[in-house]
Amino acid sequence: MNIELQRLGVTGSSPVTPQFPAARPPARRLAQVLEATREVGSLTLLLGERGNGRLFLATSAARILAAEEPQGDSRSGVNSVAVAASPVTVLPTPPTGASGVNSVFGNDFSIAATPQERANHILTSLASDALRPAMTLIAPDVDAYSPGDLQLLRLIISHPHAPRTIAIATGLSNEVESLMRGLGHTKLSVAPLDLQDADEYLSTLLGVQRIDHDTLARWHELARGTSYGLAALGLNAASSGRLQRNGGVAWVARGDDSVSGEFAEIHTSGCTDDERRMLEVIALAEPVTESSLLRSFDATVLARLFSLGFLSWRQHPDRQALVITHALLAESIRASLAPTRRFEIYDTVFDLLDADRHGLDPVHIPERLIRLVTVGLLADRDLPAAWLWNAFDLGVRRTNPHEALRLAVRVGAHPDLRPQQRAVALLEAARLASLIGDYDTEQLSGHAIVRLLNDTAQIDSIEPVVHAAMLVATIRLLVVPPVDTAAAIAELQAIESRFTDATPHAREVLRASRVYAHAGAGELRLASELDDDTPVSGDLALEWIRSSARGSMALILAQRGKTEQAASMSKRMHALTQLGPLARRDFVDFHAFGWVVSCCMGGRSDGATEVWEGLAFGPLTFASSESHHAGLLNAAQVIVSIQNGRWSDVAQQTHQLLQELQLADSFGLRPFVSAARGYALAVLGQREESLANLHLATIPVWGVSQMLTGLCRGYQLRAHSWLGEGDVGPMADELAAWAADEQLEYIELMALHIACYRRRTLPAEQLQRARTLAAGLESAQAAGVMAHIERLCQADPASATPIDDSLEVRLLAELGVWVPLPPAPGLTPREREVALFAALGRTSRFIAERLGISARTVETHLAHIFAKVGVQSREELCVWFERHPADLTAAVNGTVAGRRRGSKKLASPDAAPKPLKRR
Questions:
Q1: Residue 410's pLDDT is what?
Q2: Could you say which residues form the signal peptide (predicted)?
């Protein structure tokens, strides 16, 4: 191309659109554009919001077409050798008034006297540049073209030898209509990406198989589905080291969704200083509903930002609020602000909000009060004690935990508040600090509580129920860690003896705390005895106080096999802990977790999945931002995945959850999650990593993992069984004996089942014990396990023919109990998953839906499995799966396995594969 056109910037990409070489547009969208633009000389209009990837889509399609076409132009009769340059020309975006450039096509009009001559000159330059073949001309933002540029572009695209042209516009304005009028063209709407397309786009960009659903959903909402915003989030997470990868899945922990200030700098590059400063104020103050704030904005600047699409009105909740249109842009603006500028804005905004109340006390206007206090704390203002307390009382549990902690700490330290108020605030500060992993603030709050307890002049004015809660908090904060549970429980008992004359609510605080402490220490029988048959009270406040004890008991009841009772208790408490201003929202997820555990241990796979999805994605009446810090819903998801046999998902979910629990683990979940991970990795055949996680699961941590000691040890035992450990039988006997001492009938039965499966029989005494246990349990799993034990015990040890237990094995799989797959060398983790379901008689469609892959992929995996195992069909795979474990060692070592019920001899797993039948 000639020097003039290079100077004008006709080649190259738009300066405001980044290029991501590793990315490609979603296949469905790219196919649409390719179909519309394939014909040489075609005209295509891409309509959509900024950031939807219109330019990226256009350039990607143009480059694919250029690569497909021969290096020549059939219309002109010119043939050429291949050239290195891509025959794609992207016009610059329309110039602004301050740029000094009057036209997309430059300012030098000396080369042509008329627009037609100038258009001919540009076409000649494009066609003669290295004798390029069919050109593609891309014109961004044609709806912002000047009349002269529109006329010139129309002359170019209506020329008999016009290049293939892709025009890009935000909307179908009159100018765009006039450009297209009378010309054959195709209009394509480029909407924001849906979740499926966003996953495909980001996975390609980041080089992974898929994006974790939770991360994808958060990013999709933040970026509003725009490809530019999604790319900014993904690349920023990758470059900052926040992006985690495991097993082909990428994710970012909740709370780490940030984007650099560069995003805002690029998008606001055409704004004036006044416009950028207004955007900064709105980004920190949004949603803006107050008239004082709105009146402070320059109307001219405001109108300009609206016309550029930066601002919009949004309903909030009973009035219109001014917001930045794209949440990602607002986030980027906030990230770009220096601390001094941020403080300056908050200081100004507070003054405007304070002036807007016209001297009226905002205490009785909740929304205005919380707004003033939130901004006032950020501006480090001295706020009236009444404001602080009322804002705390109204909104501390309904906002971001970090903001709530800031408010609770300020209330707890305010000298003008009553001791009762400061005590409540300090208790909340300690809880929130523990939840988010701010251990310094947690300890400081604990010491402040101790000082208040030692102040005899103030402690007498604090209600007994709060006094009791403060004493419990000091034990938890100052005795733990390191965990000295015996000393903590002894201290609780001593305190309880001093409160015999206190109110029922105060006594219940101490009793419930002792139940929770025993359960959290793994002393499940003692916890059960302390809380045995405590009736449901008509006093809602009393039930709130019992929340911790009720949650502990639900987990214990589930391990005892009283799964319906446990599920009912968890469901009831999950509802009660969300009611009223004093509700125990810190235990909402705890009861949700117990509800899911109860459903799974009851064998209700579909019910457990439905409950978890309702909890995770349904409407919540409390501050859902606390959920990701607690980790309980994520742990519940792990249990559901185990129940449904999605082992790769379990491996990925536990890896992600363990990473997040390193920052904060207020409920003591790490050993349990490690046990679940060890179990999943054992099923997937990853021996060394499985053993490492099983070891981590044995390290006690006070909390939920100890409350679920039976289930946790059950996962470990099943993992060792899958790994083929030689001491599984003695381990099962040990677990059964422990479960009997702790009165965990369900766990004892499961341990007897593993012992029976390992030995293929049970002694008469243990068999009778299993029958007694199964008869008294509510769980459907118990009935399935007992049926399998009975079938195994029917076998004649002297017989060479193993017992046919296939029906029972399939029933157990339906209930979420997974009998080990025989060891087969060479199977990948995914192949082991597919083999497990195929050997249970599941169709390819079922396996595909369960594992989230295509049926065609399932068939490919099966072909590999047949070859590696040495079978030719699903039927033979089932036979291989059902063989007696005594034959498996020989099979793995390359010897021929014995015959089973007259079936033809099966090749050993190491034998040369036979030709496969096409399925």
A1: 94
A2: none
